[in-house]
Design goal:
Protein name (chain A): Ribosomal protein MRPL20
Largest sheet of chain A: none
Mean pLDDT of chain A: 75
Number of strands of chain B: 3
CATH topology of the largest domain in chain B: Ribonuclease iii, N-terminal Endonuclease Domain, Chain A
Shape of chain B: elongated
Largest sheet of chain B: 3 strands, antiparallel
Radius of gyration of chain B: 27 Å
Order of helices and strands of chain A: HHHHHHHHHH
Mean pLDDT of chain B: 82
Largest interface: A-B, 32 and 46 residues
CATH superfamily of the largest domain in chain B: Ribonuclease III domain
Shape of chain A: elongated
Number of helices of chain B: 15
CATH class of the largest domain in chain B: Mainly Alpha
Distance between the termini of chain B: 43 Å
InterPro entries (chain A): Ribosomal_mL58
Oligomer: heterodimer
Order of helices and strands of chain B: HHHHHHHHHHHHHHEEEH
Number of domains of chain B: 2
GO cellular component, one term (chain A): mitochondrial large ribosomal subunit
Keywords (chain A): Ribonucleoprotein, Ribosomal protein
Number of strands of chain A: 0
Low-confidence stretches of chain A: 14-18, 20-34, 120-142
Structural class of chain A: mainly alpha
Distance between the termini of chain A: 42 Å
Strand content of chain B: 5-15%
Helix content of chain A: 55-70%
Low-confidence stretches of chain B: 10-32, 37-57, 230-235
GO molecular function, one term (chain A): structural constituent of ribosome
Strand content of chain A: under 5%
Amino acid sequence: MDLRSLLRPASQLVGPLRHLAAASSSPSSSSALLLVPLISTRGHKTTARTKRSLKMAPHDSFLPSRSAAFPAADQIIYNPPASEASPEHTPFIFLPRNDPRRLAILRLRNNNNNNNNSTFSDPSQPSSSSSSSSSSAEAAAAGDGELPPEMRYKRRQPKYNLTKEHIDEMRRLRAEDPLTWSVQRLARKFECSTVFVQMAAPAPEEHLRWLRAKMERKKERWGPIRTAAREDRKRRAEMLYRGEL
Amino acid sequence: MKRIRPSRWSGQLLQARRGAGIPAARTPLCLAVRCQSTSSVPASDSSTLDSSSSSSASSPPAPPLPAPSFDRAPQSAKLAALHARLSLSKKIPLQTLARALVTPSADANPNFNNANLAYLGSTIINFHVYEYLVCKWPRLPMAILYEALRAYAGDESLQQVARRWGVEAAAAPGEEVDPGLLQWKAGESNVVNTRWGYIRSEAAKGKAWRRGLSSRVVLDSDFGDQVSSTSSSGASDSERLEYNTLQSEAFGSVVQAVIGAIYTHCGRDEAKAFVKSHILSRELDPSRLFQFKLPTRELAMLCAREGFEPPVARLESETGRLSRTPVYVVGIYSGKEKLGEGTGASLDVARRKACMTSLKAWYLYSPGNKVRVPSDMMEPGAKPWTAPHIDIGEII
């Protein structure tokens, strides 16, 4: 490849000289012989057919739109077509400060916001810093409506509503009667998560031992089908975390 | 592939040869002189022989060499073919290439085996692979970095490289074997220690002692493996080491020794170009090396650490909720920014997969395909160095 790119200017130099020689109808055949190009270049036919005619800009719909966080709902053509998200594409906020992609995406978003703003309100108004800031605020207001619905699942929602007295009370209840004051019941009473109860007020050792023995007895009653299903579930989870599912 | 079973070999092959012990008895530091001719015997060796045998036999037959002598290297077609196939420089003699094919398991004498060349080569390979990995994926966790290094420069990978070069092993090492064949045998413990690291006193406690990642960084070998103490008995060692491990070690040492030879004879730049074209050109997908434990919690901790809004799972699309095979597409959002997307047959699986994709997107951040590495600065006329992205570290 390197050799070819080096040789190309040389052949371009030789080319005009050859034309000159042809125009002067070559009284001396020896000079024409000298000017025969040393490098055989690809002919017009092949290059035009295989390279130049195939060099086309992609359709606009093929270019990914980074203006919105996700494609608009009324979009019909998805280009590139639906495929699994690749971790090679670093999301915008994961890019470090000095990454050139960050600036490029920011510029693209600003342009898009400005365009939207001008089409909606006033096309004659030039884009300025004040209009871009207002458009970004508008986009933020519109963005929440555009986002897909949140899923309902258990997640950490810290309330920080418990004081030291509450925790002492929780520990006292748990130590008094761990059977009545179970983890769920304490969590409901103090309006906190079960994980917090388990951390703040762990059950006495003999109660835990009793619970473990109870679980063991329950497991012994499981038949082969249920045992296998449990093991399979564990194996499936491991495969999922390894990215094999 | 042909499988060699040392357990089925006849007794003749498994017996220790007569002269095998003599070179092994030499200490690595003393200058070893080997006489190729049968007439003269070195003085140190003759003194160890008992007097009756030396006096009775006028010219005692010298013990056979453990590996083919380097005098025969120029005659070997295999060596010349390998030299040409790797398009090595003329500066590298065939004798050096022949020496790269003699492993310490065949010839324990460090003046005649490839141990030193292989150690030199391994440091060059590991340096170039490490700098490439660290510059290309600056956020890789340490455990993944170790595995990525192993995938490029581990013994198993180097064995594949050597096999693709056309290196073949001799059935058994010996003087009469073609010097173009790899000389190695299983069940012989390495005499020369080529793995450097620290052996801890805590290692004596066995498995009970906890071995964290930071100790792997500081104390262990390049791949984060524990350096086993060589003081343990040799017999149990050889039993423990698998045949395949020894084989890949032997084949891997050939690649390392060839690179060490290139560095010795041709210099730094040639060695770097060779490493780049033979080892770094192999494809590795680091996203397949990950195994998560609690991806949702890890992602939440990442967002808390970096000051992003807490991640929220949003259901982007779904199909066939009431059917036998539903598909859910879940996206993870931090505020309005999308971090990742995952599909699954249940809401929970899709959410966890989306979390894993987001985490991989964080860890696999790359400044670009053409990253500059520190060793690029050694080239003449290099552009001024711009610092690569340096990450603050892992999440958990």
